[in-house]
Amino acid sequence: MSTEPTTSLESRILRAAATTTTDLPEFPDDKSDLPSDYEYDPDTMEEEEEEEIIDIDENDLLEYLDQQESPLTIAQRLFYHELNTVESQSHAREWSLQCLEPATMEALYSHGWAIVDGLLDLDTVKGARLEAEAMLAQGVFSSPSAAVTNKEEADPFRDTKARDDTIVWLDPTQNTSPHIAKILAFIHGPLHHDMAEMIRLHGSTEYQLAYYHPQNAQYEQHRDAFPVDDPSDQQQRRVTAIVYLNPVWASGDGGELKLLAPAEAHGVRLGADTIVPPLLGRVVLFMSGVVDHAVLQANKERFALTAWMR
């Protein structure tokens, strides 16, 4: 694993703010050209100076942070070991993984994302879909702006207008839908175990069920967190896990997940974007502070259960 020192997210953001200001020239020594009634007292002016408030939106801030250092490189320092070396791969079978293959962890390390099919049995995901439809009929879903958690309210950068879905937050200790509860138990148990075995996780996990209506509902390009490598950070999400609950999904139904190619310096993206159909039971994993993604317009009802591990 890299031994480079970590830099706190706060430090990098403050550096971003500093670069947006311009140094003003010194006040001229020769004041003969100034109006006769102009009064200037350097001491008084310094006392009256106020701290400048700089507005910067989430995308601009992420672009600046990405120009400082690749978000994938930052996230790789959260792993306990480098996973793309010959030596590491030779010991892959010794990793204590309960549900994931070593190749999945290697992809998560090397590319920032991985796609896995077959982790959950079909009866469970089909039953979860029926339970999600029942919850929709009961009116428990609401717009993201009306269903924010305390943690989201503390995030001034989150744009709730960029999405058309409706959501419900899930609590594994209170969920009474047996099939959804089984998925939550899988995420909280074997999947979280494998993530924590390879990645420094330090906080809680959030669970959300999202519904996209079939009239072109979408979610614009965004990122789930800012890139961090500080093991003590408990605010930023580290791993995103999505479970899709969409049977008989076909080309033309829309609603695909678009994973954008990683960005390097000056906003240049390396490689092609990846389009992921939201197939029943499919699990998509990615590093929350690394992968820009979007949900394309849905032409069919679409359900997704997402967990964010800190």
Distance linking N and C termini: 20 Å
Q: Strands across the major sheet, in which order?
A: 1-8-5-10-3-2
Helix content: 25-40%
Structural class: alpha+beta
Averaged pLDDT: 85
What about the largest sheet?
A: 6 strands, antiparallel
Radius of gyration: 23 Å
Number of helices: 9
Beta strand count: 10
Range of strand content: 15-25%
Q: What string, H for helix and E for strand, traces the elements in order?
A: HHHHHHEHHEHEEEEEEEE
- The best one-word shape is globular
List unreliable stretches of 5+ residues.
150-157
Give an account of the 3D structure.
The protein is of the alpha+beta class. The chain has nine helices and ten strands. The chain has helices at residues 9-19, 42-48, 58-68, 71-76, 86-90, 102-111, 122-137, 150-153, 178-198; strands at 113-116, 166-170, 205-212, 217-222, 239-244, 257-259, 274-276, 283-287, 293-298, 302-309. The strands form two sheets. Strands 1-8-5-10-3-2 form a six-stranded antiparallel β-sheet, covered by helices on one side. A four-stranded antiparallel β-sheet has the order 4-9-6-7, with no helix packed on it.
